[in-house]
Amino acid sequence: RSGWSRGRHGSLTGPQAITENCSWCMNEACAPLHEYFEVPYPFFLELADPAAKNQYIAAKHLDNEMERLASVRTIRGGLKTATSALQMVRQLCDMAAIATSCPMALVGLLDKHVYVPCAESGLGSLDKIDRQKCLAAHACRNGSPLVCSNLNRDVRFSANPWRRDVLKAQFYAGIPLTLSNGHTIGAIEVFDTTPRFACMEVITQLQTVVRGLIRKFEETLAKNIHVENEMAHKSSSMSGRRNPSTKNMENKQRTPRAPAPSAPSAPAIPPPKKSPKPSMRSPSHKPSGSEPEPLKAKGEPKMPTSAAPVDPTPTPVAPAPAAGAG
Predict the structure, then answer these.
(1) Which of 37, 43, 260, 301 is the most buried (most CB within 10 A)?
(2) How does pLDDT run across 105-126, given as a tens digit for each residue?
(3) What is the pTM for the complete model shown?
(4) What residue spans define the domains of the chain?
């Protein structure tokens, strides 16, 4: 068939894709997608390369990514110390596997670059998963429950190396966990190694688990936001006012101390007089005081105190006349 028409998700597409109903439950909603333009949410086109073995579609970030990540990290921090909350999440994850009769179940938080498992059933010890490889990123970006009856035939997941080599899953159902503040923090997922009958019934079977998880994550978020606000308030209060002990110390340093009463002091002893330095011309010590003037004879005229300066130039002497001169 050729021509342009609206695809199964209501968007304007190219030539109409060959769609199919789920061969197990006859519901179109859980049938695998065969074309990229059938994907109803944004994804990375540069990873959509069917010729490469390990290329796969990666869902893009959510619209409120920055605000959502703040809630995710607050809950992650709260679960590290709230052992009772983490234990409840694990119990709900086990309930999901039992209610859906799936051998594998996973509850995780979708962080910026990784998908962080909080609880698992039938998957062993899981480390952090690359966000681009996890299936939960698709459920969160889809914004509603995502079910695929046969992952091997779905263009989004068939070449995904984590799904193919680690999970080895063929059936998938994931429900995004969206809090009352509008932040989608992660997902509850169930997997099966074989295709499933009555695929959409799995979503109904998970509703009780979803409500329990959202309630527990809401409590953890509210509690830790309150703790963070208290810590921030205390920090600002401490920076805005000085420590009382420090303030008292500063006041003590600024207040001048009164002089302590002292014992009556002894009479001051004058320092000894320094003897004059000996003259370089005479080794004997000269008596202190001014030197007495020499006695003068009576009637001797007194010389003026200031005499005229003597000319140091010698007076020229006239030569004697020569002998025999006439």
Answers:
(1) 43
(2) 999 999 999 999 999 999 988 8
(3) 0.65
(4) 38-229
